[in-house]
Amino acid sequence: MKTLNRRDFLRTSGAAAVMAATPGLAYSQVVGGAGPFDDYRALVCVFMFGGNDSFNMLVPNTTAEYNAYATSRQNLAIDRATLLPITPVSSGTPDFGLHPSMGAIQGLFNSGNAAFVTNVGPLVQPTTKTQYFEGSVTLPPQLFSHNDQQDQWTSLRGNVPSKTGWAGRMADLIRSGVTEQQMATNASLFGANLFQSADETVAYVMGPSGPLQFEGFSTDPTSILFEQREAFRRVVDAQYGTVYERGFADVQRRAINAADTVTGAIDDAREGGQFSMPFPASQLGVQLETVAYLIRARDDLQMKRQVFFVATGGFDSHDNQNQNQPGLLGGISDAIAAFHSATVELGISDSVTTFTQSDFGRTLTSNGDGTDHAWGGNQLVVGGAVNGQELYGSYPLLQINGPEDVTGGRMIPSTSADQYAATLARWFGIPDMELDIVAPNLPNFTQRDLGFMIA
Questions:
Q1: What is the pLDDT of residue 28?
Q2: Phi and psi dihedrals of 438, rounded to 5?
């Protein structure tokens, strides 16, 4: 039998996640007091690791704007004839088109269940091209760096170090209003992350298909591994003399119980049958299908508020972009559409909002076979509570050396990630007076709510 050291044991048991899964574990302070809630709402963050080239995801479709785009993008430009037209309500004309692999999102947009937030990215304060080059405004540090900009998106830290993410801060703010929940407010199906890190609560981390079980244990009473599991239970239930021993045993006990509870809920939900629209058999598809089953189990788990983190990679398109981008964007489109269909089938689409994040946008210019790291980009929001069939923010002129380009087709965001997050947080149930805790740079921007969510 494999011997586990303490670090391996904690990793496989999910012990660090279980503290938030059980309401009885008290913390020294509750930051906020939102709730209690009499409804259910869930946010699902789909993170595209690597930096999505989103100006090929959402393309201008009027003649002058498309020509500027095609000139800038060179061999990476999507043929205008292949764009999937979308018609924003505000214009009434097909001013934009989607990448030809995103037919499922085209359908959601034109039916009013999807919207785009354009040229959005991390900002400390509104920034113009002149201010950028003069150095007269505070900028997010380490622009164009993968790790730093992932942290900017997930923490909204600006130029101030932060150990918490904006989903984690939301969980802290509503903690006293969700004390009956049998699972943590935050749940990740893609490993521990800064987005869900908090001061008062801990995210529940699981695998793509559900909780990671203790290595060497089984829930099958006929298995010898079940006997090992029960022996371990007797060990953790024993009496210990020091607070450290008791604390460690308590964490392990909670880890077992949480894994049993969540696994049982998913298994029961699966017994209700598969969803009508099949999920893709991709990494993202598996994660979103598991989220759908957890949402089906929301009443059994007494859930009122949940934030899920799912993710997929491959978007760092320095080369082979024309070959790889159709599959990447098609995978996002199909998985999100299947998930939305599942929420419709569950009768809860108005209560579940899916949104995207990514490291950054990509350069408009081609490096010959791909693109390099940039700044602003476009993000997708899907759900029955979305003010859909619309674009929010200011879509830039995709012109090299244009008004928003700070070299090489790197667009200065015209909308901040703080505004984007605050709009979602308000819908989730965070009071306006506490939005500045979720999005610390929000006071620097006039518009606190971008309007893409139905109140």
A1: 31
A2: -70, -45
